[in-house]
Amino acid sequence: MLTACGISCSSYHLLFSSGDLLTGRKCLPGLFPGTKFLSTSICCGHGLQLKVFASGKSEKKLRKGGKSSKAFPRKELPVKELTKISNEVHLDDKANFSPSTEVFADKYPSPRRGQVLQACIGTSCLLLALGAIIRQLTHLAPAEGWALVNPSELSFDFEMWHLELILALVVLISSSRYILLKTWPDFSKSSEAANQQILSSLEPLDYVLVAFLPGISEEFLFRGALLPLIGLNWMSSLLVGAIFGVLHLGSGRRYSYAIWATFVGFAYGLAAIISSSIIVPMASHSLNNLVGSLLWRITSVSKKQDE
Predict the structure, then answer these.
(1) 238 CB contacts (<8 Å, ≥6 apart)?
(2) Helix or strand or coil: residue 50?
(3) What is the pTM of this model?
């Protein structure tokens, strides 16, 4: 019996991977003369395991009979050939390899549940405090003669027709996100990396907390404080959205994710200007976070069950 495991045995994977090689017939003439291969078992994944069972006289029997396996010379492949085969298999594995959640977990380790919740609460409180300071300063600016928009133009008022605007934003952003996940591989990888870090260790009820706290605090700062500071128009909304997008880079999230966040921030800014209310982007942002988190959990659970 021959057993080969690990990366170092990639050449064995090639030698026993196709056609008659698996059946043992017409297999490697001259390499193991006088040996008939009955079956071959290959197990590959993170490691490689190869087992070959041979019939006939074993080494032990040969020794008892006064013979030695030296009577059967083996032809060794040159080192250059083995290196070439190993490199070819390595390149082939790379070509057919698709990153999974385990790869993202290795590159960007997932923090524990308590760490995620603590970071979420702490960051949200910091954003709320920063937004409150900016809004307070812009309240004082007109009194000092500075030509700034009064932040009270974006209030916390809520009207019934705002529900329609919130629903429209949720449908638009959630459906757009779903389409991009299916059609834009780079965005899909970035989104998976972010979700893997934040959501993988959470309980189902935690999703409400990590969806609404960032949604409320981020909108309070960006749309409730920075947008009035720059101006209530579509250009200001795009600028604030771009700042919002750039701050979403890092931790596995690439430029595709920043582009997506810029688009989302722009949409929330327009909604805030149209409604003259911060409640609309806050509610839309929070609900979109919740929908995206729940969809990720459902799909990840279904993938584990399929495996």
Answers:
(1) 262, 266, 269
(2) strand
(3) 0.64
